[in-house]
Specification:
Elements lengths: L12 H15 L7 E4 L9 E5 L21 E5 L2 E10 H4 L3 H25 L8 E3 L8 H12 L7 E5 L1 H9 L1 H4 L1 H14 L4 E2 L2 E5 L5 E2 L4 H4 L2 E4 L9 E5 L6 E2 L4 E4 L6 E2 L4 E2 L5 E4 L15 E4 L6 E8 L3 E5 L12 E7 L4 E10 L4 E14 L5 E7 L1
Parallel strand pairs: 1-19, 5-23, 6-8
Antiparallel strand pairs: 2-3, 4-22, 6-18, 7-8, 9-18, 10-11, 10-17, 11-16, 12-15, 13-14, 13-17, 18-23, 19-22, 20-21, 21-22
Helix pairs in contact: 1-3
Amino acid sequence: MAHDIPQGQWYDPSIYANEALIELEKNLGMARTVHRGYDKVAKQRGSTIEVRRPGVFASGNMPIASGSDINPDYDQIELDSWKGVVFSLTDKEIGESGEVIIRDHISPAAYELARTMDASLAALYKDVPYRVTGQSTTSAYKDFTGVRRQFTDREVPDTDRWMMIGGEREEEYLNDPTFHRADSGGQENINVQVRGDLGQKFGIQAFVNQNAPVHTEGTASASDTAGAVSGAHLVGATALLVTDFTNGETILTGDMFTIAGHTRQYSAGADLTIAANGGTITISDPRGIESALAGTEVVTIIASTTNTVQNLAYNRNAFVLAMAPLSTMGDGLGTQMATIADPVTNLALRSRVWYEAKEAALYVGLDVLYGVKTLNPDLATRVQGPV
């Protein structure tokens, strides 16, 4: 597609914003597959917006006397990430065609913004307290069946299921005959051979993400995995007082653990260094513990191979990306500004253009304002594999 930008329009920031928003959407990774929230009013970093959760209903015997009230739950999402890219165009570059400018500057800048947003979402793995251990080549397909088993047991909706994987998991799947033998998978498996596109397997859509993070576990995961609850705790408590651990051991943010008698598993929401044989584990899930504790219940740290890649399987409603447009209040005060928002994709991007006379260069800035949050950790599972 040709980008014919007349010379006189190089100071029009809406051109850059439009092109960048198109490129941003094309390069989204995990952000393509999660719930999205949006506020059409311009915000600044630190602002909070409300994002509506998908409705939940219960069926009953007919005829039903009255319909369910539509009182949707809302989550407060802090727009705490303000990310941007700034680049300059010399007189020579301005003289190039619009296609060159888009290819060499706008596209890479938008890609970097998409990568940053994606990394923020991938880091939410720390809120997920469930795991499947990645299998070797001949059994790699069991990652998917293991995820399906967990999702079935937790009543995760069977639509919009995704799996974000890193390079190691991709290699295992590509080497597994289940994924590439044409006689067992038809056109889907032919696509794996031709394009490396894993497609959908066992009802889960896999996609490769270079931002799949590595988790470093606390030292308690290797040497002292069992402790005990200390004292009574009310249902919903998010601070868990524990004892019977070893002094100096650590439990790090994202480490998983169980409490005896609870069906729900938990993830640590903050780092803890054990002192006086105990301490307080912060629970990342705002729902807190599922039932009250009398004290002395066993707390078990879920140990795995140290420094593991956190591939992530999830339903789209497990996480949310929320965005809002940035202000253009400074437009015309030495800088031309424009914000472009797409109400369909709930994406927004701002561009700024200004000229530095002493450098004979036109500066272009692209920035986004967003926040990410885990809506329901029960709708996701880590698929752990070695680095």
